Amino acid sequence: MVKQYLKQAFYMLKENRLVSIISIAGTAISIAMIMIVVLVFQIQFANYYPENDRDRMMYVESGTEVQSSNGWNRGNMSAEAVKECFYSLELPEAVSGYALSLKPLSIPGKRMYKGYEIKYTDPGFWLVFSFRFVAGKPFTQADFDSAIPAAVVSESVARKLYGSTDVVGKDVVIDQAVYTICGVVEDVSRAADTAFASVWVPYTTDRILLANTTKENMAGSFSVCILAKRKGDFDAIRQELDRQIERYNGMKKDCKINFMGNPITRLDVAIGSEGQVHVSLKDYLLETGSLLLFLLFVPALNLLGVTQSAVQKRRAEMGVRKAFGATCGVLIRQVLYENGLMTLIGGALGLILSLLFLPVCKDFLLKSADTALSGDMLFQPITFGAALLFCLLLNLLSAGIPAARIARQKIVVSLKDGEEFKE
Fold it and tell me: What percent of the chain has pLDDT over 70?
């Protein structure tokens, strides 16, 4: 029976091509518009390589304030502050301090001048993030403690410098300092902004970076990422951090460090919270939810009149089918199958449109036009299913209600196209 309904639905789609095209296009536009908005948010919030545990991460990025009798400094923290306040934490699974710098990269005997993103970090970085190594391995705690000039490079950088990823043991020159490549990782998208870089090296190898401090060696160039064991540990970690801050401040004569509401979670980052400026999830959902509903309703409501009109035109047909024994349930199910089929086709087209449109327009939708997009960033079945279900319900209601009304009419009324029969 279902197979017969689908055959009839396909036949009716071909019979009423204009109405079918309008309905499918309207559904596709509705799905595509909402998926674009959700995808942009999803890229900022969802778990994907190498930030596979974003839902357990906390951040302190440019959210450090150091106060003294001579004024205050806002920005990042020093390596000493990272060590005293964060490395001493016991509750997190892993902690990493890092600083990003743009420096020229070349190989011995060949001078290049293009700048690459160099991330100065620590061994905890490889525990916080789930990098996939193509060759070699990360630098170790011993390398870090001894300031050994070891470097991990991305696939694209390895090929740019040597034409191959088989570069472990070879040298790379970072702003006139020679490092030995110890590992090669798969390229990281700029959307994974905390993990992203072209090269990763121990920050203990850069004396200038370590010496670039002020305010009793509390302010500097470093940010911190924390990986909690469980999402429920966030508040406990903040409380433990408060105790470490109090202890660290007690070691100083005049200066006091404060992280101004940090560390924040990835959800806070995605909805626009920045440490001391907190945006509640409720307010964000109210603002964003109204936009999503608008994007869904505008095309969908325009389809209501088209769909209802198409059903009304079939009044006589439904009267004939009733005269030959078709029940109200059979007539209504047929109309619902037809509209359900159009919704599914439109939903599939909408998903394809959103996936095509986002890469084309990522230069103004995302932070950078160079942001690489992968499948695990873009496709989340729950998001697509929710948007498709909404459109399906709206289409079924717009077709089902008038179909039910017509199916219950007397045969003679349906045959006369809604005019009451008069003796």
Answer: 74
Strands 177-185 and 150-154: parallel
Q: What is the pLDDT of residue 230?
A: 95
C-alpha 324/C-alpha 376 separation (Å) is 53
Among 176, 126, 181, smallest CA distance to 150 is for 181
Cα distance between residue 22 and residue 359, in whole Å: 26
User: pLDDT tens digits for 129-155?
Assistant: 999 999 999 999 999 999 999 999 999
Distance from the Cα of residue 78 to its chain's centroid: 30
**Within 13 Å, how many C-alpha atoms sit on residue 313's CB side?**
10
Q: What is the DSSP code string of 252-278?
A: -SS-EEE-TT--EEHHHHHHT-BTTB-
Give 120's contacts (C-beta < 8 A, 6+ positions apart): 98, 99, 100, 101, 201, 202, 203, 205, 206, 209
pLDDT at 422: 45
Q: What are residue 340's phi and psi, to 5 degrees?
A: -65, -40
Q: With contact defined as beta carbons under 8 Å apart, do 121 and 165 qualify? A: no
Structure tokens at 329: 């349930």
Alpha-carbon distances of 336 from 319, 322, 326, 330, 390, rounded to whole Å: 17, 17, 15, 10, 15
Kindly indicate the confidence band of residue 178, based on its pLDDT and cuts at 50, 70 and 90.
very high
What does the block give as tokens for 149? Answer: 């000039």
* Confidence band of 405 (pLDDT split at 50, 70, 90): confident
Q: Residue type for 63, please?
A: G
Q: Over the stretch 384-404, which tens digit does the pLDDT of each residue have?
A: 677 667 767 766 666 677 777
